[in-house]
Inverse folding.
């Protein structure tokens, strides 16, 4: 049940996109996010769609697998679409009870749905092609300048990678404790909402205790290996740009420029 | 309890499809003390989780007291109160503020009122040999061995007819290990409950159980009395297990020409056997 979450999962295919420097992909995602909100008109939309389709194709991640991740935000998308549909003022097309549907409303709802879908597809493409470790490595290096204004970049990156690493462990632990309490007659799916919340206590208390225990062990193990923060720390695989990465940067900038040109011209 | 052609497949239909249990046929009589042994990943934990309905067999059926547990309307909760399962490191499931309250969790879930549950809890805590002074303390202040006893008491308080324990001695020192196993043997003797002990320590198993089920790659490899199973000590080694050390000793003595019986499986039996032979020599 808990294992079905696909958002944020890594899907190894060994494609060009997978081999890129994580900083390029972070920048690319940022560029894509900007483009999704900055495009104008049907031509702009076509360019964005084409770009997304091309990148998905190159990444070799099956499209059907990516769509699975969309299911999780279905509710959010429906609510947004409904709000846009009914609450946008403009030329009324028809009316059901007190709810007016306007021409502008339909346009806004469709636009919003497309934007949200592209947002999710674009960002999940990054997590699908980048391992969590690469991602935090990339973030750490990309945000290094913030160190000057006393932002603890290394510490934040370290916390992120530890948190990510512990998700599967905690899921497994939850599964185990749930089974152990079920064997003692606990019931997690029956009763009203208060009973359900109460039935979580025998699950959450042991889970917290085990999380603290693991945190303690990990801290001890890190100290035993002389970990003392980011200053002067070297990497086993330092990030270095390759020729491929420069080409990708060029492509991204070209893409962004094209969109702005279209915005002005069309 | 009867398991009839039980198969369990992990991740069916996906690329990771794997048989965790293959065609398991077992019959477990009331009042037996059984050891289940097997290498890591041999399917022992999967097997015992089927016995109280936590996992559902992909194919095959399980009967408890003659009733099909997968039949419609069969109450899994009732099965779980009859077949108690103590997981590995059970102390990780403790959550209440006092030991007594934690042990009461199981009986309360069975629908008993507070007094009846506490009565059961007292009885269970006494039978695992925990001092009465501790009952009102927080379970988190206890030592590892004591915590484990509280957790075992938590399952015992539900008065199961069958008690299954997954490696109850893992991570305990030799003294704590012997104490827990002795108490289990006592429970078996005095209350006549069926006990299934999962372990990979042959010594533990040989000393206490009357029947051994050896699991290997999801199927039952041997199912017999300890004496008969340890006769295959060479085959056991090929699947990453070993017979008790006295078995090796007896075999070696035999090879050197001493007429000892190779059937001894515990240190005590081996001692008697060697003394017997020595007296014969005198």
């Amino acid at each position: 049940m808990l294992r079905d979450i696909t958002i944020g999962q890594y899907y190894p295919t060994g494609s060009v996109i997978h081999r890129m420097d994580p900083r390029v992909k972070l920048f690319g995602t940022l560029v894509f996010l900007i483009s999704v909100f900055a495009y104008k008109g049907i031509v702009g939309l076509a360019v964005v769609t084409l770009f997304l389709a091309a990148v998905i194709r190159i990444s070799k991640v099956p499209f059907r697998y990516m769509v699975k991740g969309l299911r999780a935000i279905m509710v959010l998308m429906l609510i947004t679409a409904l709000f846009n549909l009914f609450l946008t003022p403009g030329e009324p097309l028809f009316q059901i009870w007190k709810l007016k549907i306007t021409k502008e409303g339909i346009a806004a709802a469709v636009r919003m749905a497309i934007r949200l879908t592209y947002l999710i597809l674009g960002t999940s493409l990054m997590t699908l092609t980048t391992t969590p470790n690469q991602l935090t490595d990339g973030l750490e290096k990309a945000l290094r300048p913030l160190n000057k204004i006393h932002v603890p970049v290394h510490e934040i990156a370290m916390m992120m990678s530890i948190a990510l690493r512990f998700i599967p462990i905690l899921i497994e632990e939850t599964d185990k404790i749930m089974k152990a309490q079920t064997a003692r007659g606990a019931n997690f799916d029956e009763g009203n909402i208060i009973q359900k919340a109460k039935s979580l206590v025998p699950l959450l208390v042991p889970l917290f205790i085990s999380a603290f225990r693991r945190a303690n062990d990990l801290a001890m193990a890190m100290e035993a290996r002389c970990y003392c923060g980011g200053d002067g720390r070297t990497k086993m695989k330092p990030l270095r740009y390759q020729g491929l990465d420069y080409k990708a940067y060029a492509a991204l900038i070209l893409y962004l420029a094209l969109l702005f040109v279209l915005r002005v011209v069309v | 309890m009867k398991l009839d052609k039980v198969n369990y497949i992990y991740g069916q239909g996906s690329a990771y499809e794997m048989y965790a249990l293959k065609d398991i046929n077992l019959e477990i009589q009331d009042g037996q003390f059984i050891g289940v042994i097997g290498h890591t990943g041999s399917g022992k934990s999967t097997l015992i989780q089927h016995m109280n309905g936590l996992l559902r067999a992909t194919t095959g059926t399980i009967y408890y007291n003659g009733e099909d547990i997968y039949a419609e309307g069969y109450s899994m909760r009732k099965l779980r109160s009859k077949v108690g399962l103590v997981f590995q490191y059970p102390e990780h499931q403790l959550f209440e503020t006092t030991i007594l309250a934690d042990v009461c969790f199981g009986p309360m879930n069975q629908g008993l009122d507070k007094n009846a549950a506490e009565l059961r809890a007292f009885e269970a805590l006494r039978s695992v040999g925990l001092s009465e002074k501790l009952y009102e303390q927080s379970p988190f202040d206890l030592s590892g061995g004591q915590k484990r006893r509280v957790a075992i008491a938590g399952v015992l308080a539900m008065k199961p007819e069958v008690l299954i324990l997954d490696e109850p001695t893992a991570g305990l020192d030799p003294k704590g290990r012997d104490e827990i196993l002795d108490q289990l043997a006592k429970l078996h003797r005095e209350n006549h409950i069926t006990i299934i002990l999962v372990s990979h320590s042959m010594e533990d198993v040989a000393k206490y159980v009357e029947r051994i089920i050896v699991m290997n790659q999801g199927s039952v490899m041997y199912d017999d009395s300890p004496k008969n199973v340890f006769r295959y000590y060479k085959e056991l080694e090929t699947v990453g297990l070993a017979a008790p050390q006295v078995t090796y000793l007896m075999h070696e003595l035999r090879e050197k020409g001493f007429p000892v019986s190779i059937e001894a499986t515990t240190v005590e039996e081996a001692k008697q056997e060697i003394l017997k032979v020595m007296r014969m020599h005198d």
